[in-house]
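[READ THE FOLD]
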Amino acid sequence: MLGMKNGKEQIKKMNSTKLDYMSLYDYLGKPAGRILGERVYKEAYWFGITPKYRFVDTKTYKGKVHLYTRAFLDYYFEREEITDIII
């Protein structure tokens, strides 16, 4: 697990080596929803990560989706799982 103290440096280091960008849908295998999407975006903003964008047109959603690096998403969801267990 990455500590919050050095988390920013670790994410930047991992992002420089793992630059495969993906949407939350690609990462989770299901729609993430607006609330989770906003949480992930805010965390990325805090880390200084600028997401890329992709436009999608499906039966249920038409519009822009954010794309994040796999390294960031791995970090975010690993930390969320641990937080859920502790709380």
User: Anything to note?
Assistant: The two ends are 17 Å apart (CA to CA). The first strand starts at residue 21 and ends at 22. Residues 81 and 87 are 10 Å apart (CA to CA). The helical segments are 7-17, 24-28, 34-47, 70-86.
